[in-house]
Amino acid sequence: MIPGSTNELLQRLMIVVHYGANGHRGIHVMTNHLRRLFEFIGLSERVRDFCKRCLLCLHVKGGAIIPRPFSETHFTFERNETLHWDFLTLGESFGSSQYVLVMKDEATHFAELVACDGPTSEVAAAAILDWHSRFGIPPTWVSDSGSHFTSKVIGELNRRLKAQQKFTLAYTPWKNGSVERVNRDIIQVLKALILEFKVSAADWPYLLPLVQSSINHSPVQSLANKAPIELFTGLPCPNTLDTVLLPGKKAARVASLPKERPDLDNKLRQLRASLKVMHKAVKEVRERQALRYRSRRHYEQPVNFSIGDYVLRSRVDEKLHANKLSVTWVGPYRVTGATEYYFTVEHLVTGKSTNVHPSRLKHYADSSLNVSAELIDHVASQGTLLAVEALVDHRYNTSMKMFEIKVKWQGLEEVEDSWEPLKSIVEDVPKLMKEYADEAKDGRLHRAMTATLQSKNRKSS
Q: Which residues form the signal peptide (predicted)?
């Protein structure tokens, strides 16, 4: 029986059964090892606390993403106040179009679809100006961080139109969920129409107007059973049941249900009042939905770090060349900034700052952590992916019988330049390697690079 006051002795015992050959196993394994020889009151709780504080276990245990509680970072009920837009890939068509620019009003779900050849800033600028010419300019534009939305062209247009851009991070589509939801509807309706009309999938540009009409003229529960066209334009939502086919002896004729001729002034007043009532009803429905969602039981973990603290970052989104032994959680990083969408973290070795969604961050230590030389070495040993700034030299390694390239790494000092195998450089930065080989004018290097490229292409095919 170990007395409860001997904390140092228990700490040493837990280190022995956790580190080294024991392989950082979990709580139950440690508890079983200790209970075979010792008795201690509250052992399970002490072991659990010890495992939570093991800095190496934080790197390798747990999922690649930590669920965080959702909240409305941006919410509006005003028509044409917030525009969500995104490029959706639909593939080859019989024309030159391969993409659709999806533009959606947040409050009313009114959408416009623009077929285009590629996701460019020119397409985005033309589309927003076209929207502006008919409906006015939305004060807020929400999109992902693609170059077509972050370009100088869109930035200057945004400034001149006195609007505000808001960006979401890569691999966090739920932050732009309004447009991601309509993307799913577009694909679903297109698939159904292609099957019904028995046409090729490459005919999708010709079906796009039907898809847009279907989205805008569909009353939905989230809009208090109103259609987007009603809430956004005030126009009545047409119904296919309004038209009747009357069979006759000679030929069938089509008849529409009669409509009263409007008194324009009265109709305009009624329209304004009707829009106000509809928008109020929609606001109430959406607020009730949000309340129901928040009242459900969730398994999200609240953010437990702040600016100045140290965190680990998940590499779940990085391409690690299928290296299954690379740790998922790397770092620690220092938290240097926070916004409503993401945190800004700084790498302790390179000093590079990165914007990261909180679901990719895990608390490591508070701001009092001592950043020692040993900790810096620990960070540098995790296979951190560095960016190549330039290729500065090459040599032939006679013992390895292969060319090596001297690499200058972005964010590191000149003394930290390293010699890397030609094969690795060709795989990671083929364009930069080709430019260097052309400038070096070394025939042997050029032939070795060409052979490596051909071998790479054969493997990929």
A: none
Please give the DSSP secondary-structure letter assigned to residue 353. Answer: E
The domain made up of 310-380 has a fold known as: SH3 type barrels. (2.30.30)
Q: Which amino acid is at 36?
A: R
Q: Across the strands, what pairs with 112?
A: 103
CA gap 456, 158 in Å, rounded: 43
Instruction: Tell me the HSE value of 455 on the side-chain side, using a 13 A CA sphere.
Output: 11
DSSP state of 20: G
- pLDDT in the model for residue 252: 59
In this predicted model, what pLDDT tens digit does every residue of 25-48 receive, in sequence order?
788 888 888 888 887 778 888 888
What does 402-426 look like in DSSP terms, one character per residue? Answer: EEEEEEEETTS-GGG-EEEEHHHHH
Strand, helix or coil for residue 388 = strand
* pLDDT (tens digit per residue) in 384-408: 556 788 899 999 988 888 899 999 8
pLDDT of residue 129: 95
Closest to 118 measured CA to CA, from 160, 82, 146: 146
Distance CA 109, CA 216 (A): 8
CATH code for the domain defined by 388-460: 2.40.50.40
Contact 383, 326 (CB under 8 A): yes
> C-alpha distances in angstroms, 263 versus 233, 236, 277, 448?
19, 16, 21, 82
**Cα–Cα distance, 346 to 351 (Å, whole number):** 6
Enumerate residues 6+ apart whose C-beta is below 8 A from 379. 330, 331, 332, 347, 348, 349
The secondary structure of 38-84 as a DSSP string is ---TTHHHHHHHHHHH-HHHHHHSS-SS-------SS---STTSEEE
Listed residue (133, 135, 124) closest to 157, CA to CA: 124
- Domain 82-233, CATH among 3.40.630.30, 3.30.70.890, 3.30.420.10, 3.30.70.360: 3.30.420.10
